Fold each of these.
Amino acid sequence: MTGKMRVVIDPGHGGTDPGAIGAAGTLEKDINLALANILRNIMGRHDLEVYMTREGDRTMSINERFIFIAKCKPDLMISVHHNAGGVTSTGSEALYRASGTPMPGETTLAKALAEAMAATLGIPNRGLKPHVHGVLKSDCDSVTLEAGFLTNPAEEQLLLRPEVQRGLAEEITYTVLHHYRLPAIMPAPAPAPSPVQHWAQGSLDKAIAAGIIATPEAWADLDTTLSKGLFLAFMDKAGVISGKE
Ligand SMILES: [Zn+2]
């Protein structure tokens, strides 16, 4: 592999084709795009060049997708889908090309992705399924992911949770990086949180700067009470008490 590894993410369905319809009405085309967008962002943080077959809710034929994928000359194509079955159907699976010759390593990656999705979601691993699907004819490693079942009410709600989608996208990314022996680029550590400031610290700083308070050390504890006399003296010093004009 020369240069950055190229990945095409294909959010399944779109536009006039809703794909599967969930127990609570989730449209597969929407959840596919949501997961694909998160996946694109996470993959983009690593040393991967990422393309999307569709960025919005648009109708796109399998042939259009196939042509777009070919133009990108990717090393890997991941088609993102969610499954439909009965109300009790459950689990993650990955589809690999059933026609033509699979690319070397393609089924190994698909198997690892099915395992990673099931483990992240805490649902059964349905493993690999052969599939004749247009986008799986691409001249690169190609896999279609079926994260879980939208027709299963509990699984639909699980799959809709943003933090679950994020965890899923992260696991898919790390599985891909591991498969191609690419380094994971760790995010920079978050800056140490600054100590919590007292709510009145800003006012104290201003009062010191204005010369109203000459002894800042006496004001170190901002939660001690102030006598009425001192309060009036400071009001006077601050020019608040100036009498009627
Ligand atoms: Zn689908």
Note: The longest strand covers residues 141-149.
Amino acid sequence: MNKFLIRSPLYRCLILTLIIAFTSLFYTRKSTVIYKNNFNNLDVSTPDSDISTPDFNDPTSNFLKKEWINPAKDISLYQKTSRANAALVVLVRNSELHDIRSSMRQLEDRWNKKFNYPYVFLNDKEFTEEFKIKTSALTKGKTYYGLIPKEMWSYPDWINQTRAAEERRKMHEAQVIYGGSESYRHMCRFNSGFFFLHPLLLQFDYYWRLEPQVQFMCDIDYDPFLFMQKNKLIYGFTISLYEFQSTIPTLWKTVKNFIKEYPQFIPKDNIMNFISDDGGKEYNLCHFWSNFEIADLNFWRNTPYREFFNYLDKSGGFFYERWGDAPVHSIAIALFNQKSKVHFFNDIAYMHEPYLHCPIQPESHETGRCHCNPNKNIDFDFYSCNQKWFEIK
Ligand SMILES: Nc1nc2c(ncn2[C@@H]2O[C@H](COP(=O)(O)OP(=O)(O)O)[C@@H](O)[C@H]2O)c(=O)[nH]1
Ligand SMILES: [Mg+2]
């Protein structure tokens, strides 16, 4: 082929089209296989009618058919006369006004306009009038705006701030995600140890954590808070995945020391096998993605978790490393609870970039209840820990 032809726009266009066609064919086939396999194996939405033949060797099918409670099937959760003592909790900056409005709008449209639960907005700076006006305008629920007390968002006296700054510099250089950020560390520590003690939250028993720029892609017609309360659940999640080891080099060592010192807090039938593949020697990095949480505030306020947080905090890892609230919450949930206390909200489609949980059951899509793409559901990807969740006993 002569040089002129290779350089011609027509030739380049042809090559590009071929590459795109080949790639999308490969990608579509791969995801369709996963999608179809799971469709064939799962029939959680209509377990009574038994349309498909479930494969009971498949752990996912077993999990959703046998172990999983489907809240949408409980008609008592649809009534709006009694509500749980609960709120949406939003830690956010003034600069994120439009992104949080987007999250709120979707959550209102998909769910809260039917229930009108209140919102508690928290910030380390005073909220602006504009922020208050433009967020409260989106909901009929009550809105509270709180400043975070200094002691919940600053260095404890045992932290050597020169060392903390040096560790940040090193982590930034090593390109650890948010490794150079001081405010991110305060945020993670606040979400780990303090949000549930904020004066505005003390009046509530359950919360749903909401972040800017997230998406909700299915209608939720029942009350998830009442569901948690009725079933005495502690924690609800949609997405789980693997943590970056470089953010938590000494976290597991510290957790193991805590377990040795406080064996009375650790029940034998806990969920250790979700967070460790060798009975607790090593952390397998699995964690619930805590930007979405529907949970019991009193779990965090009770002694075992308070002792746990204080123990971690004393070791300095929130500042000398970059411990996230997601692994900290998840490890505590797994150490102190049985699996039956934790709920996977399969029916809530949730997107926080770059990951999506989208229910794969045909019912969710055929009824028009959801608009997410089930082929993009993270649950069955290799970086999701949900498969592990479905398999463990
Ligand atoms: N008020 C306040 N909120 C923050 C700050 N840093 C993060 N947040 C909030 O904490 C949550 C997590 O932060 P985000 O930037 O989304 O982190 P990511 O989800 O881990 O990428 C979001 O709700 C943010 O709005 C901060 O310095 N001040
Ligand atoms: Mg976020």
Note: The chain has two domains: 7-58, 72-391.
Amino acid sequence: MGAGGGAGEEERGRVMRPVVCVPCRLFFKPKKLGVTIGEGMPDGIGGWQAYKLWQGDLWACAGCGAEIIRGFGQRAIAEHFQAGYAQAVQACRPLFRVDDC
Ligand SMILES: [Zn+2]
């Protein structure tokens, strides 16, 4: 399951539950709405390849500066097999790609 799975549950009804920074004992606050990240998938030969683009919101802790991205939509904004994927990457300028699953 991609990044949208658990986040999609949280987004149901647009209820955004608070997230707490444990070391600082502070709530994370929105820093930038509408950021894009890539999601990679194993390429079968030990590396990673493009898989999906997700849009979410960047939140930060004012205490330590830690940043998280949450609030992903139910669906990826683009997937690797779609004809316009490369153009979507160019247009959305993902911050980075998460190579993890
Ligand atoms: Zn913190």
Note: The pocket of zinc ion is lined by residues 21, 23-24, 26, 61, 63-64, 66 (CB under 6 Å).
